[in-house]
Structures are given as structure tokens and as C-alpha cells.
Amino acid sequence: MIWYREVIQKLNATGIFKECLVIGAKVRATISETMFLDIYYDPTTKSYSYGLVDLELPYKGDRRIFGWDDYPHEGVEKMKKLKSYPHHFQSRKGDKWVYPY
User: Which pLDDT band, with edges at 50, 70 and 90, does 76 fall under?
Assistant: First the structure.
């Protein structure tokens, strides 16, 4: 079974999302015209990320409100001290990313 089929079924069952689609290599679950959940998973490498995106955020570039992923953020030494490294949560404080070090 392709990974995203079960994900889409579960997202649709919540009743929260207007629409759940596969866009490229990710699932996008739409909450409103400007807010959605993006879920990415690579079954070969097992790499993943998810993030809640708000297109109305006033920041350039990345418009995620928060997310969870396994990106190692090489060069950020504090990340390696996380018990869950490289898996981590990140959220915004204004236009800056906050990690749970």
C-alpha cells in the first residue's frame, strides 16, 4: 500500500480538513484557503516532516507555524544534544524558529 493512502483516509476521518490531496511527494490537508498541513514521507529513507502552514504569516519564505521532522540541521550543535535527535519539534516565536534544546 502506498504510504499516503492511509494518511489521507485518517485525515479525512477527522472532519477537520476541507480537502486532502497528494501534491508532488507530500500530502496537503487544507484547513482554509490560507492554512494547511503538509506531510512528507520518503519510504526509501524513512525521512519525514510535517508542518502547519499559514500563508498569512508576515514572514518571507517559510510560513510554517510549527513542525516536526528528522532534518539534522548540521551546524546547529545544540540539536545534537536532544534525546530525540535528529527528530525534533520546532515552532515560531515571531519570525524566529524555536527548538526545544
Answer: confident
Q: Are the C-beta atoms of 29 and 37 separated by less than 8 Å?
A: yes
Task: State the DSSP string of the chain.
Answer: --HHHHHHHHHHHHS--SEEEEETTEEEEESSSSEEEEEEEETTTTEEEEEEEETTSSSSS--EEEEEE----TT-GGGGGSTTTT-EEEEEETTEEE---
pTM score, two decimals? 0.88
d(CA 54, CA 37): 9
C-alpha 91/C-alpha 67 separation (Å) is 7
Question: Which residues share a beta bridge with 33?
Answer: none
| Residue, of 41 and 95, whose pLDDT is higher | 41
